[in-house]
Known about the structure:
Layout lengths: L2 H22 L3 H10 L4 H25 L5 H4 L3 H14 L5 H20 L1
Amino acid sequence: MDRKNKLLSAFGGFAAGLANGLLGAGGGMFLVPLLQKAGVTGSRAHATSVAAIFPLCLLSAALYLFRGQATLSDALPYLPWMVGGSLIGAWLLPRCSSVWLRRIFGLLMLWAAGRMLL
């Protein structure tokens, strides 16, 4: 890995961790474009992002639960639906073209930005 990619990886990893801890699993917004810039294909970049975010989510969740800022009872009603959505998303990912993945990801980022700004 050359110096430029090492710097991008360090910045992207830090930004993903910061976004995940601060915003709740927002690290993919940094990792997917970073991975694609490093030459990783669209579906692989999304899948790798999920794999990288998973331990960060566990750590953030543990910290929030330990400090009493979240409870399992608050999260429980959403978990079955999230598991179902995750299974369907993981099934769909390899079936989507890179063009559609970029479009869907971009629309999701625009929607999130709109919600945050308004």
